[in-house]
Structure formats: C-alpha cells, structure tokens
Please model this.
Amino acid sequence: MANSTTEILKNNLKLYRNMRNLTQEQLAEMAGISTDYISELERGKKVPSIKRLDYIAKALNIEIYKFFLAN
Model:
C-alpha cells in the first residue's frame, strides 16, 4: 500500500531536520513557528499550509517539493 501524502510529508520533515542536526526547537525558531507545531507535523497530527511549509523549507534550505517525494 502506498504511503499517504501526510505520511510522506511527516517522514521527510523529520529526515531533513535530522540531516541538518536540528532539534524541533531549533527548526521552529528558524522557521518562526512553534515547537508544538513542528512536533504535530512530525506526528502527522497537522497538515501545514503552503505558507508554513515554505517557512520550514527555507529554514532547512530545501525546495518544498522535496517534502513530498516518497523514499
């Protein structure tokens, strides 16, 4: 069964954050959003708006589309 978009997004968010050796708190501060929100995204409890996803992508120095690539 294929992964859902939310599952792919949450896995990639955590992957890229860990690749940059960032804590959830550090990423949240860099992206200008709350730590709780990053945590909820990584647990698949929330789905980000494009605007917030753009903030996170810029903080991680990646293109937004990379969040949606199945590994």
